[in-house]
Design goal:
heterodimer, A: alpha+beta, Nucleotidyltransferase, domain 5, Actin, Chain A, domain 4, 3 domains, 11 helices, 18 strands, flat, B: alpha+beta, 2 domains, five-stranded mixed sheet
Chain lengths: 338, 347
């Protein structure tokens, strides 16, 4: 049976896993988290449902994020999560999987061993044909940039576990840097800050919610106050806490300053010719961190370089995988023209 | 007894709530068929069961020394697993003509402080009796379901169950107990404190039933002291035996006196509640602001208990509609679930 090959693009993000399937589009876009039953090892929930369980489980459920800081931390959980995606969501059979090409996108500064782990993981899913590519490369293409010209472009991907900065030209990465400060780091900083300032402890989901609702770095931002529930650390009783957008801003600004530092350190190593191109084209901002209001403005002001936010910040990596599947990461073949 | 082990027909599900003070049995399709004290009377010489439940309670303190009346569960802890077996076997055999042969699923609700060994012992008991599906559940879980909480959601709930022997605190989320605490300050303790007070103050010895009546009629925790129709403070004519003369005597005890005793009794409950709240993970604690606290068990009937807990927890407190039977009500719901699960719609 010489049936057509299935093609999958997988963005193994720390917070979100996005799977793109050729001819079908994005088939899965949910938090990369999975819950197991401790006794039987059975999968209790995955994705959004498992995400709601964060901080709320009893000891009979183990909640695992298979990816930590952009790399696979728990092989078994990662495999189960992929099984869940392929089996439950798409109902791909073993046979179909063996006739599949997959590209996995990972952060740029991962070691050889970490890459091998990813390949091993996908191979254990019975997908024989697999290759690993950098997220920023896929992200740039997913955002609609033509990276196959000999023209420098810069992309900053602020994800869940890592922030990647990359300079691309002529179809591949010229230079890239990663720091492990991104969305998750901001969440935990918000938790710490609220505990210190208001003496109320809030959970992981709540601090994430506060970030999403209140994060605003614009100068002209209207101050906002939202009410969240947590536990009073002095009395121990449940308590509401009013978090202001200024509180969140105070936490976010240092993180983005760090990102700006990273960008400028990349610029220092970029050849002047490429720098000139980037100055003309501007920096492309992607990932969940790009959704923070005023993030582009902030970076642009600090560096005096125009910054654009790509239109599909969350899914651009998976969408870019579409092109990588066509040229298998070969810089000589421009998939946009295929 | 003819065992039709292969046919599913005529199979029934049975739930048993092994409380410190009461043993309740629920049979699917028949409702609660048994609700009597958890007492067993055994013949000392042969070890045979003489009677259980009310019949055994009637023998309490009134029997010769050939018969011994025992409490197999003491203060929320199984004191004698063998007696627990006997009490279960005896009552079920009495209730169901067909005995254990027809039970397809047996659910035992136990206190939170049950050890793994005891759990295994009870499961083995079920298997020995020919029940394929024996399950042990925590009372606090059953009572929260009985109190009309949908526990199969990633949402935290705090349940306080003031029973006979123990007061249990449980934080429930995703269909199971996240953390629980159990203290031995509960109904029986209140009674004994009341008995003690009457003895000290009035030199009057009263029986446990009288003490319980005093509690039921007069106990209150906050707000105005309960008053009767004539506008006076509620009182109760208490009869007992004078310690000095040894003759029967009657004293009048009013609600104010009982209030003081109750407040003192509730101190450990108060601190256990605070420590439960303190150890609740923040995400679940945050949920409590919305979901509030559920109070079940006989203790929920004490006047002012709602306001008392609201003052401590600073969140809304809800009293279960039928606090005494909420465990058995929850057992009923749990019996319907064929597989262990943690979330989704359980009905």
């Amino acid at each position: 049976m010489a049936s057509e090959k299935f093609r999958l693009g997988i963005d193994l993000g720390t917070t979100n896993m996005i799977v793109y399937m050729e001819k079908k589009g994005i088939i899965y876009n949910d938090p990369a988290i999975i819950a197991f039953d401790r006794d039987s090892g059975r999968v209790v929930a995955a994705g959004v449902e498992a995400h709601h369980m964060l901080g709320k489980t009893h000891e009979k459920i183990i909640l695992i994020r298979p990816l930590r800081n952009g790399v696979i931390g728990d092989m078994h959980a990662a495999r189960e999560l992929l099984k869940y995606v392929f089996g439950k969501v798409e109902a791909l059979t073993e046979r179909q999987l063996s006739n599949t090409v997959a590209v996995v996108c990972c952060p740029s500064e991962v070691t050889k061993i970490e890459r091998d782990t990813i390949i091993e993981l996908i191979k254990s899913m019975n997908i024989k044909d697999v290759f690993v590519e950098e997220e920023i490369k896929a992200g740039a293409m997913g955002a609609g940039l033509d990276i196959f010209e000999s023209k420098g472009t810069m992309i900053v991907d602020i994800g869940g576990g890592t922030t990647d900065v990359g300079v691309l030209s002529f179809g591949d990465i010229v230079l890239s840097r990663t720091i492990r400060k991104a969305g998750d780091y901001i969440n935990s900083e918000i938790g710490k800050f609220i505990k210190k300032k208001y003496k109320v402890e809030i959970g992981e989901i709540t601090s994430e919610l506060a970030k999403i609702e209140l994060a605003d770095m614009r100068e002209s931002a209207t101050p906002m106050t939202n009410r969240y529930a947590g536990r009073d650390i002095v009395l121990g009783v449940p308590k509401y806490v009013d978090i202001t957008s200024q509180d969140v801003k105070d936490i976010i600004v240092p993180v983005y300053e760090e990102i700006v530092k990273l960008i400028s350190s990349v610029f220092k190593e970029t050849s002047p010719e490429l720098s000139a191109d980037i100055y003309a084209n501007g920096i492309l901002l992607a990932g969940g961190g790009a959704l923070v209001k005023g993030a582009d403005e902030f970076i642009s002001l600090k560096l005096n370089i125009p910054v654009k936010v790509c239109r599909n910040v969350l899914t651009c990596v998976a969408e870019g995988a579409k092109y990588l599947l066509k040229n298998r990461g070969d810089y000589l073949v421009n998939p946009l023209q295929l | 007894m003819a065992k039709k082990s292969n046919s599913k027909e005529g199979k029934i599900n049975v739930g048993i709530d092994l409380g410190t003070s009461n043993l309740r049995i629920y049979v699917e399709g028949r409702g609660m068929v048994y609700n009597e004290p958890s007492l067993i009377a055994i013949d000392k010489a042969t070890g045979n069961v003489v009677s259980v439940g009310n019949d055994a309670a009637a023998l309490l303190d009134k029997t010769h020394d050939k018969v011994e009346v025992k409490k197999p569960i003491h203060g929320g802890v199984i004191s004698d697993i063998d007696l627990v077996r006997q009490i279960i076997v005896y009552t079920v055999k009495k209730l169901l003509v067909s005995g254990f042969g027809n039970i397809s699923r047996l659910m035992l609700c136990m206190t939170t402080e049950i050890t793994e060994t005891e759990k295994t012992a009870l499961e083995t008991l079920g298997n020995e009796l020919g029940v394929q599906d024996t399950r042990i559940e925590e009372e606090i879980k059953a009572s929260s379901i009985g109190g009309d909480i949908n526990i199969y959601k990633p949402m935290g709930h705090l349940v306080i169950d003031i029973g006979g022997g123990t007061t249990d605190f449980g934080v429930i989320s995703l269909g199971d107990v996240v953390l629980s605490r159990s203290i031995k300050t509960a109904g029986d303790y209140f009674d004994s404190q009341i008995t003690h007070y009457v003895k000290e103050k009035y030199n009057l010895e009263i029986g446990p039933q009288t003490a319980e009546q005093l509690k039921i009629h007069l106990a209150s925790l906050t707000g105005d002291i309960p008053i009767n129709e004539e506008g006076n403070v509620c009182f109760f004519e208490t009869r007992g035996r004078d310690l000095v003369s040894g003759l029967p005597r009657m004293v009048v005890i009013n609600a104010e006196e009982i209030r003081e005793i109750m407040l003192e009794c509730f101190e450990p409950i108060r601190s256990a509640l605070i420590s439960t709240l303190e150890s609740t993970p923040p995400e679940l604690s945050g949920d409590l602001v919305d979901t509030g606290v559920l109070v079940t068990g006989g203790g929920a009937l004490i006047k002012g208990v709602k306001e008392y807990f609201e003052d401590i927890a600073t969140v809304r407190v809800v009293l279960a509609k039928d606090p005494i039977n909420s465990v058995i009500e929850g057992t009923k719901q749990l019996l319907k679930i064929s597989k262990r699960r943690y979330f989704g719609d359980y009905r």
